[in-house]
Specification:
Layout lengths: L1 H23 L5 E3 L3 E8 L4 E9 L7 E6 L4 E5 L9 E8 L5 E11 L6 E10 L7
Parallel strand pairs: 2-8
Antiparallel strand pairs: 1-3, 3-6, 4-7, 5-6, 7-8
Length: 134
């Protein structure tokens, strides 16, 4: 008889744990189409824009709470409104460098999503403007 009780208790705990794990997966999930963008050649002191598209593939709305860039030459702008499940949003990054050479900058996205934070990368080569006409 005691063996039957323990079996029932163990089964109950397994079911409870499984339900708990499923509820965790009901959160929002921030899914970026690309996590790295190569800007190619970028002219020094010129602004370059790029856009990271994302979708909320979770089951609840998500909010991007803040976005931080690794340096002042990189300015992020993002969707401030809640993104409902299955809906898309975008993160625009403006890059303007005053230093020549190979560059790689990171943008970290903090949100209410289960996979927060998400790290994004922009990279490229900053070059002199060789156009004499301008």
């Amino acid at each position: 008889m005691k063996r039957k009780h323990w079996t029932i208790v163990i089964l109950f705990l397994c079911v409870f744990w499984n339900i708990s794990a499923q509820q965790k997966s009901l959160k929002s999930f921030l899914n970026f189409e690309e996590k790295e963008i190569d800007l190619g050649k970028v002219v020094i002191n010129k602004e370059v824009n790029c856009i990271f598209e994302f979708e909320n593939t979770g089951k609840e709305s998500l909010i991007i709470t803040r976005v931080s860039a690794s340096c002042g030459c990189t300015t992020p702008e993002w969707t401030k409104a809640p993104i409902k499940k299955g809906k898309k949003g975008s993160l625009k990054v403006v890059f303007k460098s005053s230093k020549k050479g190979v560059t790689s900058k990171s943008i970290t996205v903090y949100s209410t999503a289960e996979n927060s934070p998400v790290k994004l990368i922009i990279k490229g080569v900053v070059v002199e403007n060789n156009n004499k006409d301008k």
